[in-house]
Amino acid sequence: MDLAPGMADEDIHPQGADSWPSERRIPAAAIREALLGRDLKPAPEGLVIRGADITGTLNLDYASVPFPLVINHSRFNRPLTARHACVKYLSLASSHLPGVRLDDSVIDSWVVLDESVVAGYVSAIQLRAGLFSATRMELKAEGGRALILDRANIQGSVYFDGLKSTQGELRLTSARIGGSLTIAYGTLRTVGKVILNLERAKVSGNVYLTELNARGRINLASAQLDGLLTWTGATIRAVDHEVKGLEDIAVYGQYLQVSTLWLRGIREVRGSLYLAAAQIGSLVVDPNPPDRQLPGPLMAIGCSIRDMHGIIREDRRAAASWLSSVDSKLSHITQPWHEFAAVYERIGQTSDARWMRWQAAKLTTRHAPWYTKLARWPYGALVGYGYYPLVAAAWLALTLIVTATLVAGSRASFAPTNPASAQLVQSSPPQNPGVAPEAPGPTVTGETACSEINPAYPCLDPILYAIDSLLPPGTAGQAGAWRVISTDWWSGSFAVLRTFAWITTALLLAGVTGLLRKT
């Protein structure tokens, strides 16, 4: 039934139906009678109406319509209701309606709301349909609800391309979608906190939020997305609020399960990404983001990631910067750092994995109680919390250099342990009887030139003495040949240096043998 013959679709303008001639008005009761009346036999293509002004309420609750129902480019002055109905095919494309109620209904094939304008809201709770299409639909709902597909079961895909919602929330909580979900190129606004709610939803295909412009939180809590979730070109601006102490959450994805989280090419995210306990197969970010800034702040406590791509794969410092953007109230939790380290280890970047775990240990120390810091600070400085045991070798080398320098500058503080053996024996003619022997030579100290010491006695060598004294066991023969005779500061300093050298040696050996604890 074409009530606008000869007119192109774009010239019908249902919003101006008040000026249409009266012959274009159809009572809703007449349509119901045509659909359900026993005396009327529908055509194979079903009931098709174009360009009508439908008065009254078209009530199809509990109705069974075994053929297509198509009412396009028309105006309804009351909401269409088809609760608990069974319809073969339903199209309201390019129509203007105060609202649509499809709760608990079964649509055998498609539900088409393309380019329709709904002044109220669309409710399709527990709808079962083959496909749901609402491309370029405009929702003007007030009161926080725009489109409700809670617990809906759509065998195919759901299309919201170019959707425009200025007041309310899109709800698909616990929905089951067998194909893809597309909300690309849409503009979404809300007077509440949440603009898109996919909590506990299951989507077997991809989810496209390409070029989406949304103001409000996107709720992905406990959603199961078996394909790709992409945000390319999207702009997400959070509404000020608090969740567990965190403000301005743009994407709430606690317990989210997604095969691929594609964050590459996002235009802007004003708010945080809350991905606590999420399970992500592959995390993809930009390889060269502007100003090296990634979307966020990121809150990923308890998150598990199988693989990642982009700058966080190639640049560990960029990954650390992203993880550090978390709210200060939760910055002491290091699990996300260890998760990134596990990814690095799986892809063969073991040095990056070790560095990330080292950063996590430093973070733990920063937030630890003061009394535990007393042990963690030196442990981190000496062996990098167990991740860099060769740092102990550098400390040991520095200790040897300091000791050798002190020995070289304090030679007078050393004397032979066997002064008689160190004396230079000089050949002289036999002494006449009754003549006193010559006085012994000068006392030998560390300052005595090697030429004035018995060649059979080791001359004091600062480097060898440091090695022999500090490294157990010493084999250079210096520690047994020379002793400290000074009672000033040198004796105490040498004891401290020896103790420090033994500690660093023990840590170095433990690290090399794998016994050193990493914490």
Task: Describe this entry's structure for a reader.
- The strands form five sheets. The chain has a 16-stranded parallel beta sheet that branches. An eight-stranded parallel beta barrel has the order 13-16-20-23-26-24-21-17. A three-stranded parallel beta sheet has the order 1-3-5.
- α4 (335-346) packs antiparallel against α5 (350-367), α5 (350-367) packs antiparallel against α6 (370-383) and α7 (391-409) runs antiparallel to α11 (489-512).
- The chain has 519 residues and is of the alpha/beta class.
- The radius of gyration is 41 Å and the shape is rod-shaped.
- It has eleven helices and 38 strands.
- The longest helix is centred in the last third of the chain and has 24 residues, at 489-512.
- It folds into two domains: 20-370; 391-425 and 443-512, no CATH class.
- A hairpin with a 2-residue loop joins β28 and β29 (246-247).
Number of helices: 11
User: Which of globular, elongated, flat, extended, rod-shaped describes the shape?
Assistant: rod-shaped
The number of domains is 2
Low-confidence sequence ranges: 241-245
On the 0-100 scale, what is the average pLDDT? 86
- Please summarize the sheet with the most strands: 16 strands, parallel
Query: Structural class of the helix and strand makeup?
Result: alpha/beta
Radius of gyration: 41 Å
Q: Give the termini distance in whole angstroms.
A: 77 Å
The number of strands is 38
Strand content: 25-35%
Helical content class? 10-25%
Region (Disordered): 1-23, 421-445
Transmembrane segments: 385-408, 495-516
Protein name: Membrane-associated oxidoreductase
Organism: Geodermatophilus dictyosporus
